[in-house]
Amino acid sequence: MNDDEQHLNLLAIFHYVVAGITALGGCFPIIHLGVGIAILSGSFRPEPNDPAATTFIGWMFTGIAGAIIIVMWSLAIVVLIGGRCLHQRRRPTFCLVVAGLECVLVPFGTVLGVFTIIVLLRPSVRQLFGEQDGSAVAGG
Fold first, then answer.
1. CA 65 – CA 106 distance, rounded (Å)
2. Cα–Cα distance, 114 to 103 (Å, whole number)
3. CB-based contact 112:15 (threshold 8 Å)
4. Domain boundaries, the chain
5. What pTM value is reported for the model?
């Protein structure tokens, strides 16, 4: 196994790890989601004199927490698929897009995204993906 294959295999493993960390990070807003649902159901009333404000606060807690959970879990799934594509040596353009998205996941995703981009832009790695001219990796 040459260095490029080893690098791609390591990157695939690290993608799986970052996907797991991202999914775990997406679980933390579940607490806020529970508080928002409790406020909306009437179990928890921080402002008993103003029901409109209480409802608004409950919807804010629920909506923002739900959106964060969906975004984080979706990103985790995309990173997981990107790692699988790296492992199978297919869809290099998708892997590059995922690497770019990972840069948002500070600090581990940023490091992994940058290293993935560097490795995927090598001509020898393009050949491992079955591309002779590299046009799919370069976006052309």
1. 20
2. 7
3. yes
4. 3-138
5. 0.86
C-alpha 107/C-alpha 66 separation (Å) is 24
In this prediction, residues 48-68 reach a mean pLDDT of 89
For residue 7, the model assigns a pLDDT of 97
- Where residue 101 falls (left for φ over 0; alpha for ψ -120 to 50; beta otherwise) is alpha
CA distances from 19 to 14, 120, 140 (A): 8, 19, 29
> Mind listing the pLDDT tens digit for each residue in 73-107?
999 999 999 999 999 999 999 999 999 999 999 99
Report pLDDT digits (tens) over 131-140: 644 455 555 4
SS3 category, 28: coil
Place of tokens 């990796």: 137
Residue pair 62/33 in contact by the 8 Å Cβ criterion: yes
Sign for the pseudo-dihedral over CA of 79, 20, 109, 85:
negative
Inter-residue contact 98 to 79 (CB < 8 Å): yes
| Nearest alpha carbon to residue 99 among 120, 116, 87 | 116
Q: For 8-77, where are the E strands, in sequence order? A: none
